[in-house]
Amino acid sequence: xxxxxxGVLVAAVLVARRLLVVVQVAGTSMxxxxxxxxxxxxxxxxxxxxxxxxxxxxxxxxxxxxxxxRLGATDWFIKRVAAIPGxxxxxxxxxxxxxxxxxxxxxxxxxxxxxxxxxRDSRAWGYVPYDRVLGVxxxxxxx
Length: 143
Prior knowledge:
The protein is an alpha+beta fold and about 140 residues long. It is about 20% helix and about 25% strand. One of its GO terms (cellular component) is plasma membrane.
């Protein structure tokens, strides 16, 4: 019986490691919601189920196209989803992506904004490709 319980626990840990990751916040782009040093629990994947208002972790813009996202990298950003495919491109981002008024976010792209108005986000880099999203923040870890 003890081996069965141990086996179930090991399996549960392995599944959790595949589905969840802890990321430490760096920078002030998400203040007041998150502060430098905060740790957040991220549910991996699920880019196809994203909704406006969710906070996501994604690979930084300078890495797009160079390599697939990987754990252990120090180039992860955390921002709030401002628009998903099929929604109207926010006015604050439209000029950056050459979108006329009323344009829609294209397929497999996101608009992300930091909570801090001084954030570098889609207003600076444009759309975020879906395949660069690590996952959705589901919980702030206790300090």
